[in-house]
């Protein structure tokens, strides 16, 4: 089928205004959020219903044209943009959202519904959604399931897979799999919803998701703590956690990140003097958790890890608090201001250049040494490069951002990811593999793991039309 013939067939399915072939109209779908990954799409197609998605996939399969599913295009590993010549299937028009089922505490959302829309919808019904990420205004539910997004509340509610009670999706041959009843108990075979969570558009196009909701926690308090280093932050969190059942976020960042955020946004620094490390805590509940947090901060002993590290030599007097300064906010503007130091990291880094972004997780006992050693590793390999670290401390997840290295030079990526693997971590904590980390998958997944993943891909997408070159090297594995 010629390009024009495929475009004509897709116009018949979705209407001509939803098949984009002009360079100007396609441009926004062809470059990822970081600007590092881009490629020309053959065309962009924007179906609005499940049966249209199915017909689009059948047409593309018959034409032998690969398809890149795309949601909000906020993914950070290059999985949502074409590498050259694919059809981009944007799910953003699949944006219907059902009534909240208060009895089940669930809702069914189209794959194109943004996280912010879902949150507002759930909150209007006095419930909430358990996953939150800073890209909430653009990231879609389909994309979040496809990447198994994590974010800032994983320590309390888990990641995206744990919120999914059912799914509807279209396979590469146009067949529709659908389990949206949201049954709490359903052990009747393979868990397709669980399988599609984290599949990065390589197994199916997700069209609807049945989501679990969580109780609303209207009262919130945020504390920003200044600390000497990562180990002190870990000790503090370890000491506070048992007494803080309302704790739902524990985010770590460092002096250079705060300086960049302030420079980029015009925010004033959080404290009169800069500190090496910052820990942001948020507690939330039906009752005001402020007293609980403040008492915990005043009374919590230094964490148990401090005395056992470095050959059993305590790094500070046993009764000394590692907290060097504290800011606490209970009102919304104050909380948002403290959160801004963390949430503006991604955009401030992007404004400073095209970053190498490595989203990794480490076992708790390795995290502090990794934070120290990764800086030295990058300084040795790429003198002059800037390393900006931040992450979700409660999940052992650090985002390693490296500025000042050309986008195509992957030397530092290789060194950092090898260090992560040697220390028992994962090369992708929450963003996925995409195109960015494809060549390193075998560092932290065994041959048998990868063979099983390839077998699944081969079974559901034998001609390899769904997102080739993302997550698995399908060109090789599916005979393309
Ligand atoms: C400022 C910022 C902060 C972020 N913070 C976090 C964070 O805290 N935690 C976190 O986990 N991520 C974070 N991210 C990354 C990103 O927002 C998530 O990966 C998000 O889940 C992507 O959703 P999306 O709709 O934009 O998907 P896209 O970027 O469009 O796509 C991502 C992947 O999913 C596939 N896909 C998309 N939609 C579908 C579908 N309907 N069916 C099948 N496959 C599909 C794509 O092919 C691609 O492989 C952040 C990004 C930004 C820009």
- Helical percentage: 25-40%
CATH architecture of the largest domain: 2-Layer Sandwich
**Total count of helical runs of at least 4 residues:** 18
Cα separation of the termini: 17 Å
Report the top-level CATH class of the largest domain.
Alpha Beta
The structure class reads alpha+beta
**Percent in strands:** 15-25%
Largest sheet: 7 strands, antiparallel
CATH topology-level name of the largest domain: Alpha-Beta Plaits
Structural notes for this entry:
Helix 14 (364-381) packs antiparallel against helix 15. The chain has 18 helices and 17 strands. By secondary structure, the chain is α+β, with helices and mostly antiparallel strands. The longest helix has 18 residues, at 364-381. Helices cover 36% and strands 19% of the residues. Residues 303-316 and 476-480 have low confidence and may be disordered. The chain folds into 5 domains: 3-90, 2-Layer Sandwich (Uridine Diphospho-n-acetylenolpyruvylglucosamine Reductase, domain 2); 106-215, Uridine Diphospho-n-acetylenolpyruvylglucosamine Reductase, domain 3 (2-Layer Sandwich), CATH 3.30.465.10; 219-343, 2-Layer Sandwich (Alpha-Beta Plaits); 353-443, 2-Layer Sandwich (Alpha-Beta Plaits), CATH 3.30.70; 445-477, no CATH class. A hairpin with a 4-residue loop joins strand 16 (386-392) and strand 17 (397-403). The strands form 4 sheets. The chain has a 7-stranded antiparallel β-sheet with strand order 14-11-13-12-16-17-15, with helices on both faces. The radius of gyration is 23 Å and the shape is globular. Flavin-adenine dinucleotide binds next to strand 3, helix 5 and strand 9.
